[in-house]
Amino acid sequence: MNKNSFVASSVILGALIMTVGCSAVKKDSSGLEYDPEVRKSQEVVHEVGSLSSRVLEILAIKGKTTKAGPSVGTCEASGDGSRKYRNVRHPWSMYGVENGALEKGMKNLHNALPQQGWKVVKYGKDSSRNRNLEIMAVHLETHTQLEATWMKGLDGHTPLIEITLYSRCYEAKS
Q1: Max CA distance (Å), the chain
Q2: b/e per residue, 128-150, with b = 16+ CB within 10 A?
Q3: pTM (2 decimals)?
Q4: Per-residue pLDDT at 31
Q5: What is the pLDDT of residue 59?
Q6: Alpha helices (runs of H) in 62-114, residue ranges in sequence order
Q7: CA-to-CA distance for 39 and 166, rounded, in angstroms?
Q8: Rounded to whole angstroms, how far apart are CA atoms 121 and 116?
Q9: What pLDDT was estimated at residue 30?
C-alpha cells in the first residue's frame, strides 16, 4: 500500500468512526465509543435484512445474488475478551450481468441512498490495481453500515457488486 492509499484509507476510517463509532476506538468499560443498546438479536437481524433488501431494490438491476442471509456474530468490543456484545452482518453479491448494468446499479445506489436515510461517507475508486468503485454509507437512524464495491472483473474474475451491511454492536437480550 502506498502512502497516498494509506492516507485515503485513514481518512475514510476516521469519517466512519466519527459518524457511527467503531469497536477499535476505546471509550469506557464497554470498549466502544458509544453505549451498546440491549436488543433482541432477531430484531437486529430483521432490521439489517430489511435494509439489505432495500439496497437490492435500489440497485434496480436484474442479476443473480448470493443466498446467504444476515447472521449474528460476536462483536469484539470489550478488552476483557468476554463475548458480551453481538453484531449482525449481511454480506452478499450481485453478479451474472454485464459491467454496464453493474455501473448503473452503483449509480442508482449512490443517488438514492441519501433519500433513503443514508449518509454516503465515501464514493470513489479504491486503491486496487483495478480501481474498483466503492460506496461506504451509514444509515442515520440505525447506524447500520454499508460497504458496496463494484469489481469489474478486469483480473479475469466474474464482474460483480459486493455488498456488506453490518449493525452496530449491541448487548443481546434474552
Answers
A1: 49
A2: eeeebbbbbbbbeebebbbbbbb
A3: 0.78
A4: 67
A5: 95
A6: 99-112
A7: 15
A8: 15
A9: 57
